[in-house]
Amino acid sequence: MRNEPADLREPRGRGLERRRAISDVRFETIARRFAALTRLSQTELDLLHRIGAGPANIWPARSLLEAPGEDQEATRYIISGWAARVRELQDGRRQLVQVILPGDALTPTLQVRQRQQMIQCLTMVQTVDGAAVKLAARDGGKFPGIAAATELAAAHDRALLMEQITRLGRHTAYERMANLFLELHHRCNVVGLVHADGFIFPLTQESLGDLLGLSVVHVNRTLQLMRREGVIELKHGRLTLLDTEALKPAAEFRPPSLAYLG
Amino acid sequence: MRNEPADLREPRGRGLERRRAISDVRFETIARRFAALTRLSQTELDLLHRIGAGPANIWPARSLLEAPGEDQEATRYIISGWAARVRELQDGRRQLVQVILPGDALTPTLQVRQRQQMIQCLTMVQTVDGAAVKLAARDGGKFPGIAAATELAAAHDRALLMEQITRLGRHTAYERMANLFLELHHRCNVVGLVHADGFIFPLTQESLGDLLGLSVVHVNRTLQLMRREGVIELKHGRLTLLDTEALKPAAEFRPPSLAYLG
DNA sequence: CGGAACGTTGATAGCTATCAATCGACGTGG
DNA sequence: CCACGTCGATTGATAGCTATCAACGTTCCG
Q1: Residue pair A78/A123 in contact by the 8 Å Cβ criterion
Q2: Which residue has the higher pLDDT, A93 or A7?
Q3: What is the pTM of this model?
Q4: Which residues of A, range 206-235, sit inside 8 Å of B by Cβ?
Q5: Predicted pLDDT at A255
Q6: Looking at residue A67, what is its pLDDT?
């Protein structure tokens, strides 16, 4: 019932060129993500490229990568498209707990059975099997970089959850949005999805509201304020940060600096 | 400057008996916490008891278990007292990201250098070194339970962060508070800190506000509403849930059900 | 052409914050 | 033993951010 027709949400005004450029780069996504976390050997890069180029599963927009109550067995990596962990309250209120981007892992690690929670595709999503990554990570002798990156990615994920908590707890609507935009910009940039400070932004205003704990109407008004101020441009599903520096003070954003594993 | 005199926050009207009962049980804290996550062998229980009975570090209330920007090398376990991960904004707004209770680990795993974040003691805190736990967890052959519990504890921690996100994003003040109280009740119960549905509750109303994203004043009014409704009793640093069932619908709370590792 | 999804706008309501002041408990120094 | 400062809790008055309701515009699509 939830499997509506796929929605690519690629930038609409662009031609085939961009499409190709993006898909050509997809197999590198995991490697890029990991390389941003720690130093990888050529062997490791090759392995990650092979994994990223492996057979991909396609999930249509709005489909569930993980249904409520369900526990996935396998680790998977998203190599394209956006997804989100969603929590629904009984009266219909929704909370997007976190946004999951290309290069991020869907781990079965959370043995804690989640309360009415699911992972939903915000766009069409492609995933690849992550078993090989897991195996490599276990062999810390042969793949020290992958082992380290796996751990760091988990820590990074945790840090982002804490960031989201601060946003929701103590930021105003404007600050939440500024902070989120900088975070997403940063994360997209890591996996090569940013061009000229702009990136595909498939969140609807309603989803944005569910993510930031705001109503649709207020999201709309805050966006327009930012547009009037000339700090962002958001149209045709593409977000461009026109004035990153102006955004930072409001958001108190600092890109996470990583400590390399010794 | 922050090291004010220790504050035990034991229930004030009680005699020596309770004091002894609590401290006698402290060494079991880690074992209790782990046993609630998975099945432990007697060997494992004994090991955890020994670890819990080992030399403890004492931290006065308000002291920092981890200063901003600092990375701790060692894993430590809290065996008594409450702490919190705190994030401070430049203009003085504070967010308590999570509450850390006896039995919880302070892991150095977060190699992501946190942004102006610290772990602060809310009461006097006792910690023990967790290196032995880490070692045991690595030896999955000999200590399968400890290995599993360590992983589950991490997943549990993550789940609690997500719970906190939902609270802050989509719950009203009343719901946030009800949900939090149930969570803390549940977590305290696991480590044997609950007696007759009541437990020591050292959070000031201001801290509660910083945790739930509310102002002190509103915390106060919400608490009084709950008191008038007869669902809680909170005095002398002790919280009693008088009507758990009445609290649950408001909070949509469900205790996390755990999947045992195979 | 109608419907559905998304975005936009105006009016109004309400939850929660802020400001200010008071009170009680506690610890300290005179 | 008491004045005094501090911390936490409490209360009243007021302001403001954000939600809710309702309606309309736009785009896309069968």
Answers
A1: no
A2: A93
A3: 0.89
A4: 210-213
A5: 58
A6: 85
